[in-house]
Amino acid sequence: MKRNLAVYLNLVCAGSLWLVGCATNQRPPPPAGSSAQPTATPAAAAPAARTVKSETADLLAKAASVPPAPFEGEGWQSLFDGHVLGNWRETDFAGRGEVRVESGAIILSMGSPFTGIRWTNGFPKENYEIAFDAMRTMGSDFFCGLTVPVRDSHCSLIVGGWGGGLVGVSSLDGMDASENETTKYMSFDSGRWYRIRFRVTANRLEAWIDKEKMVNVETTGRKVSLRPGDIELSVPLGICSWQTSAALREIRWWRVTEAAGPLK
Fold first, then answer.
1. Phi and psi angles of residue 47, each rounded to the nearest 5 degrees, phi first
2. Most exposed of 81, 98, 204, 221 (fewest Cβ within 10 Å)?
3. Which residues of 164-183 are buried (b: 16+ CB within 10 A; e: fewer)?
4. Which residues contact 138 (CB under 8 A, 6 or more apart)?
5. What mean pLDDT is reported for the chain?
6. Which class in CATH covers the domain with range 62-255?
């Protein structure tokens, strides 16, 4: 009788362990003395992460072989030497991605949502132009959110926003880059350098992408400001990306005294 009861209890315990193992999708430990080891399941994301990193490295290596376009005019001053961040610092965005220097460029890894850099030295408030090459390496939103001083305020030039193709200034009279007269659309290819130029003079904002003039707006009597939110961490001068990986190189600026062309 006692032997039958012991057998019954052993069967009940074994069945309970089997049910627990099924419920938790875990295998029971191997029997004592067995040399068998449980087979580890590799993380599903690891191969994908390695592939993405490899593809990005290949893209950057290819992009590094493309020489930058010349800067027209004399007196350009460098803000990045191609080797170290120097006076640039990571912007303290929550959820930011990695910032590093690689292949002569500053890499802004994809953030959630922002990744960026901020200039920590002096910079003029008007009568200047800033220019650099920018490239989207991954993602589908803006790869250049350039925040600059405009007299006693600031604004941002957005390149590739709102789904990938919007260009404009945020903000004018409280209207952001998707709502005011600077709004334009352009197709941007990943892995291609674009020369971004933004000129701020006493009464005008002008911007170019490569040779095309994208912004030409009078600011007299207008309210120039930043779109409220985390972008405010970029002041006084900063560059960021939104849920997108980007590369920046050849960052320079020079003094100007007037707008580059007539108001159209």
1. -60, -40
2. 221
3. bbbbbbbbbeebbbeebebb
4. 52, 56, 110, 190, 244, 245
5. 85
6. mainly beta
| Distance from C-alpha of 221 to C-alpha of 207, rounded to nearest angstrom | 20
Beta bridge partners of 155: 148
pLDDT in tens, 105-151: 999 999 999 999 999 999 999 999 999 999 999 999 999 999 999 99
Instruction: Give the whole-angstrom CA distance, residue 199 versus residue 256.
Output: 8
Tokens at 26, concatenated: 């875990």
CA distances from 254 to 20, 88, 130, 217, 224 (A): 70, 18, 7, 20, 22
What's the CA gap between 244 and 142, in Å, rounded? Answer: 7
pTM, two decimals, is 0.80
| 198 neighbors 157 (Cβ within 8 angstroms) | yes
Q: How many helices (H) does the chain have, and how many strands (E)?
A: 2, 15
pLDDT in tens, 47-96: 444 555 665 788 888 998 999 999 999 999 999 999 999 999 999 999 99
- So where are the chain's domains? 62-255
Residue 9 has phi, psi (to 5 degrees) of -65, -40
Here the tokens at position 153 are 């305020």
d(CA 241, CA 112) in angstroms, rounded, equals 10
Buried b (16+ CB within 10 A) or exposed e, 14-26: eeeeeeeeeeeee
- Per-residue CA distances from 193 to 3, 60, 105, 149 (Å): 81, 11, 11, 25
Query: With contact defined as beta carbons under 8 Å apart, do 168 and 185 qualify?
Result: no
